Amino acid sequence: MAYAAWDHPEPLALGSAPLPEYGSGSLADLLPTLAAGMAVPGMTASITELTAADRNCVFLVDGLGWEQLRAHPDEAPFLASLLGSSRGGTGRPITAGYPATTATSLASVGTGLPPGAHGLPGYTVRNPATGELMNQLRWQPWTDPAAWQPYPTVFQLAADAGVHSAQVSSPTFERTPLTKVALSGGTFHGRLTGEERMDFAAEQLAAADRSLVYTYYAELDGAGHRYGVDSDTWRGQLMHVDRLVQRLAEQLPPRSALYVTADHGMLDVPFDEQHRIDFDEDWELRAGVALLGGEGRARHVYAVPGAQNDVLTCWREVLGEQFWVASRDEAITAGWFGPPDRFDERVYERIGDVVAAAHDDVLIIASEREPKESAMVGNHGSMTPVEQLVPLLEVRS
Q1: Using CA atoms, how far apart are residues 27 and 370, in angstroms rounded to an integer?
Q2: Of 226, 223, 259, 251, whose CA–CA distance to 238 is shortest?
Q3: pTM
């Protein structure tokens, strides 16, 4: 009897990773599609299922994945009633982009570019200029935002074309570097409560004949990270989101389209050694690694000089049944970060020498380096449907 396959399991084929729908149905395609419908120069309506409107509002609910929404119709009856409206009435979701994480997704939304072009390809990535890890959500350590992400946002291009553009969000985000590189252009309006944001977003939509308005809610994601998407706290937040969306939908001015979407989905990962592989306690995974970036389900691994191939081989041997493990060039060529012909070379060294994307419900935690992240119940980042698929619910007036 041959035991070769059992002794040496084959790693997951890179071609089996379900790529985001860059260019036809990803978050990066949303604002360009809406702006094209408002005659903003240079914009392309890539999500062909959508119909143009004079006034467009995007309400991004952090962490509201398609699969989680479909699984909770009782907590979100209004949202559930809109499932058939998703993606222009096809009843289908769109995809976040890789990695499915907030900083990357918000940059994709705001710039209309895939991660390999806008240059925020992960939660933490190496800054080639300093050799340090940079947290792109918190922008630590600080670096010049305009140099890190030099492209104009769709909001800015729309405002330049005479479209009334506005962002309505928590005052906390008004001056953050992430807002500057991803969501600036037009006018930022800080409002503390979700209800205030809904009311003011409706006012901003009505402020001009052509309007592009963005609003945001973060607390659902926070509940998922801390308590899990199977918790009463998360369900309570979903109920609140449902009421907020209905509140905004009932105030839409004429000729408006409201789109409810998200930056990623989320899944709960059990707290045991089988599901949480601790990098800080695994000598094999640490060998030859200079920096560990990304997050538990979407890792960027930076090797010491000359050790790239050894690290790739080791990570494939140890994790290849549970993670898609690729070299930097393989991940770029495969289109993980967007179409290869749209990849910006300034982003090349920000991506890990090795990129590991979770297939199973597992994490690569780092209990000493990342104690807070390692303790999270709900997680996201990879290319699985539960993380990648997000709604594009639509209400029109």
Answers
A1: 28
A2: 223
A3: 0.96
